[in-house]
Amino acid sequence: MPINKGNLGFEKNIWSAADKLRGNVDASEYKHVVLGLIFLKYISDSFEGKYNELVKEGAGFEEERDEYLAQNIFYVPEKARWDYIARHANDQEIGQVIDKAMVEIEKENIRLKGILPKNFARPELDKRRLGEVVDLFTNMPLVDNKNKKDIIGRTYEYCLAMFAEQEGRRAGEFYTPSSIVKTLVEILEPYNGRVYDPACGAGGMFVQSAKFVENHHGNIRDLSVYGQEANPTTWKLAQMNLAIRGIEADLGETYADTFFNNQHPTLRADFIMANPPFNMSDWGGDKLTDDKRWRYGTPPNGNANFAWLQHMIYHLSPKGKIGMVLANGSLSSQTSSEGEIRKSIIKDDLVECIIAMPTQLFYSTGIPVSLWILNRKKKQKEKTLFIDARNMGEMVTRAHRDLKEEEIKTISDTYKDFVKGELEEVQGYSAVADLEEIEKHDYVLTPGRYVGIEEEEDDGISFEEKMEELTAELSGLFQEGNELEQEIRERLKVIGYDI
Question: Domain 174-451 belongs to what topology?
Fold first, then answer.
């Protein structure tokens, strides 16, 4: 994500304490322990806030389950509430207490059935340190419930990013770097309508969409959220992540393969944002050759890139927009019908913008990627904007790069200027091409072909001055070389070798 180094506070304390708790538990399993505990704290705080309101009203409804569900608040049974868990933080049985709490919460809330982790009693989990993490949550420094819940949401997000960094290659299953997500959201501007992600991971696209709406003083209830995820544990992470953010989402009845068990077959979305698996081979395309989604051509069985793209186009509303991440090979590949599919999509005037991104943005891979922006209602007909952002970003670790906030704004502003017809092209960075020019490039969409090479800044020194300086320097090097050659000859002569 980018992790905000200047405002970590509680998030960093939780991570540090939880990291000690890990012991010999594998990171991919351990993240469910930490994130599950964060989720438990969140729903308990939400319940407690409403519970106190009902107590003040004095009507005796504080234990009525429907009072909570009516306001989209999970009902928490007495022995699953945080104050009960906190009282047992230093007991050796704290793991069992938390597991039982998770079971009881699932019994009372159908939406959470089968989703919450129940692995806190496992022997390899240090119960003393588990109690310390519980104590940390209990002693949160803020008393304002809204701020407290916001911190918990940020903590969940922070820990997701930290687990992505730890898991490396496996991180792609559940995490898209938030600088990429933010770029897509700033470009698409999902204020209201149906938002869909067919490979939603832990739900990062939805969280950033909700933040965008809130930051622009909109109402999150104006968004309808739909998603799908094939990995069962990741699907559970997404459910918890969205619940913490107060986002009501339809992620399908269960985890499922998007191509073979489409959970939203009739959906037509206004905004589709996705980071599907890159270059997925053996995805079963040979069993879907006549699928109605393949309007632009049957995608090859050896690579699912254009299957994902066409699946999203199929689910797009008449006014809809797509923002998706694809490996750079999709921009130029001519193998196995990919070139023809790309050509057909371009000729249908759907491709609005292509953005080449820097390398090392992902924890799971170092390969460069591009953002595809497609639009059924393009303002600039038969034109495509190309942006080369490969030189943007800064290394935040030895292996990972992030885009800065101002760089994300630069990219989104460039897109918005293009849409308004006000773009001033910048050589080496941005260019607009019509269909005729793209055809000349054989329907290859690599931005570098269109934006050209960045102009070097004029340093004010004339060509003649530069040549005089260079020739003087070169003369000095020649002289130094001659002297070195003479010295070598003389030393060789001393030992009997005359050249």
Answer: Rossmann fold (3.40.50)
